[in-house]
Amino acid sequence: MERDTRHQIALIAAVVAAALFAAGAAARVDASPPTKKHGVLTVAVELGAPGFAEGKISNPQGFSTDVARAVAKRLGLKLRFVNYPFTHLFVPGSKPYDLALEFATITPYRKRLVDFSTPEIASSLGVLVAKDVTGPVNLARLRKLQVCVKQVTTGFAYVEDVLRPTALILEYPTTASAFAALSTSICDAFVFDLPALVAAKHANPDRFGAIVGRVGPPEYYGGLLPKGSAMLPYINRAIASLKRDGTMKKIATKHFGAALTATPMLR
């Protein structure tokens, strides 16, 4: 009788062990990142942003696209890009992406509308002038120039609320249209993210004048996810890993060099 009891106990233990093993296996499968498409990280970029996302959507090039490739690799996922306008990032509604990498500054107001990843890098706003603007440019002179901005950006907010130029502020919906206006001297100066200005000047040195300086406080740039996205901890771990081993710094240096810290503040 005692031997039968021991046999029954052993049989029950075996069944429980098998169940626990199966549950563990299922948990490992369920632990894969909860992307829109299984096994694929869909990343939104805005094509036409110098230094960040240029070329064809099938194989875009730039800082944001290199970060996307590195994040997808860390997560063990395939990668798919979609072209998505920056101005729609903060508009409510369903999104066609898991993660948007469009060099968006993290602000308290924006955090009410979307979830931000841990910052990729930090920088600031900068001022790029047109070819026919020569000589020293300080804040007093900048206020008297024709300034252009990109809509729904911290550059726009700085120009409108802090700089307050004497002339009408020229607003453009895309980075490309603002750069086009600057290159044809429709406007004299473009206030925008310094890394983007550095990349544009490097790519087309004869199209623009000088980067005359930095303005405003430091800004931190992060990836955007729909509010409440279950992907956030996965993205945060991947970006933290890329920063920890120096990969993020290498990507930034590749596209922007030392200009992010060497460019002086505009006084």
Explain what the structure shows.
This protein has 267 residues and is an alpha/beta fold. It folds into two domains: 40-121 and 221-258, Periplasmic binding protein-like II (D-Maltodextrin-Binding Protein, domain 2); 123-218, Periplasmic binding protein-like II (D-Maltodextrin-Binding Protein, domain 2), CATH 3.40.190. Helices cover 40% and strands 22% of the residues. Strands 1, 2, 3, 4, 5, 6, 7, 8 and 9 form a nine-stranded mixed beta sheet that branches. Helix 2 runs antiparallel to helix 9 (247-256). The longest helix has 29 residues, at 2-30. It starts with a helix and ends in a 5-residue tail after the last helix. The model is unreliable at 1-30 (pLDDT under 50).
Question: What is the ordering of alpha helices and beta strands?
Answer: HEHEEHEEHEHEHEHEHHH
What's the N-to-C terminus distance? 93 Å
- Principal-axis shape equals elongated
| Average residue pLDDT | 89
CATH fold name of the largest domain: D-Maltodextrin-Binding Protein, domain 2
The major beta sheet can be summarized as: 9 strands, mixed
Tally of separate helices: 10
Q: What is the CATH class designation of the largest domain?
A: Alpha Beta
- Strand content of the residues, in percent? 15-25%
Q: How many structural domains does the protein architecture include?
A: 2
The CATH fourth-level homologous superfamily of the largest domain: Periplasmic binding protein-like II
Tell me the helix content: 40-55%
